[in-house]
Amino acid sequence: MPGFPLKGVRVADFTWQGAGPFTTKHLADHGADVIRIESSRRLDGLRSGRPFRDGIPGVNRSGYFANRNSNKRTILLDLKHPKGHEIALRLIAQSDVVANNFGRGTMEKLGLGYEDCRRVKPDIIYLVSTVNGSEGPDADEIGSGVTVVAMAGLTHLGGRPDMKPVGTGTSYSDHVTVPSHSAFAVLAALRHRRRTGRGQLIDVAQVETTTVLLGPIVMDYTVNGNVQTRNANRVSYAAPHGVYPCAGPGADRWIAIAAASDDEWRALVAELGAVEWITDERFATLAARHQHGDELDQAIAAITRQRDAYELMESLQRHRVTAGVMQTSEDLVERDPQERFRGHFAKLDHPEMGPSIYDSPPYHLSGIHEPVMRRPAPLLGQHTYEVLAELLGMDREEVDRLTEEGVLT
């Protein structure tokens, strides 16, 4: 029976914050032994990021950190200490992948650059993920997911045309584009190494991985001469296409509705009890509905605000009209039948936070017949002794001595 496809692959994970840890989580979820190298001298910012379990701050209580680091092990190691540097190289010598998302040159200053790692593991796969890549005029620029999304051009496209850009509402690059591209590149490099015996240097430019999302917009300009800009929720191929207020449960309920064909439009107005709109010249055609978009949105909202959001969504979907309730986190965990059917949310018992809910991967592999979510996010330095004993043959006395010397901290 097939098992986890990355079983036997070890990752020395020097990443931090958002995009890097999410990249290595993809690998950990599918069997890789991902060992995070952390230091209490410079904590991963996510460990102090909200929300905290029960509202109590702590380095082991961040839901954000937990979400990005399940299925991993972690050790404490001061990379600036000579002995810490030596231990890091010994771990790398027993690893298949090294991953980091520090600024350009950081790992080289620590003596852990690609060439340093190749000397101890010639076929190492080395992933470095920076804002603009390791070469070029902007290679030294630093930033975060918010600035990456802006530099890639996505922020300009989000919002109302009469207002300043609002962007995507989240660091889309941290959650989707950078981790997905990076993990795929690592998988390709593992396959290449299996076939050739050679490792790879993977240089990921976060802005470039995010800019690829502009493909349809570039094609629209290239082929049609259209320059797209902010247009709120409006799209050319559907009208209505928006978000409308609804009744409960809860005080702030909304439903997204889109009608992309005449059949969908007729089904929508029938469900809303507004069949007179079929012959109303303002709404009779797609072009007319676009022209009178504000009036149409107001008319729909006047009806939907009297309807229960879930009841309306289910009825519209039965009639093949695209519709979805704008759900809260509670809705997703407690009410969403599709998430429940797919077993998306897993409960793992964290050593400090207790039973906690974790996201599973949004895809299933047919060959895996075991729970993908196996291990809660680690406590800071939780596996230091375990890893050093298992991989480097250290005993408790040596680990305690290195801790006292400030090496394992």
Nutshell version of this structure?
Helices cover 39% and strands 14% of the residues.
CATH architecture of the largest domain: 3-Layer(aba) Sandwich
Structural class: alpha/beta
Helical fraction = 25-40%
Secondary structure tally: strands: 11
Number of helices: 17
| Biggest pleated sheet | 6 strands, parallel
What is the radius of gyration?
25 Å
Low-confidence stretches: none
| Tally of distinct domains | 2
The CATH superfamily of the largest domain bears the name Crotonobetainyl-coa:carnitine coa-transferase, domain 1
Distance N to C terminus: 41 Å
What's the rounded overall pLDDT mean?
Answer: 93
CATH class of the largest domain: Alpha Beta
Which outline best applies? Answer: elongated
User: CATH topology of the largest domain, which one?
Assistant: Rossmann fold
Strand content: 5-15%
**What's the order of the H and E elements?**
EHEHEHEHHEHHEHHEEHHHHEHHEEHH
Indicate the topology:
Blueprint: E1 10-13, H1 19-29, E2 33-38, H2 63-69, E3 73-76, H3 82-93, E4 97-100, H4 106-109, H5 114-120, E5 125-130, H6 145-151, H7 172-196, E6 200-205, H8 206-211, H9 215-224, E7 241-246, E8 253-258, H10 262-272, H11 286-291, H12 293-304, H13 309-318, E9 322-325, H14 329-334, H15 337-342, E10 345-350, E11 354-359, H16 384-392, H17 396-404
Helix pairs in contact: 1-7
Q: What distinguishing features does this structure have?
A:
three-stranded antiparallel beta sheet; formyl-coa transferase, domain 3; Rossmann fold; six-stranded parallel beta sheet; 2 domains; 17 helices; 409 residues; 11 strands; alpha/beta
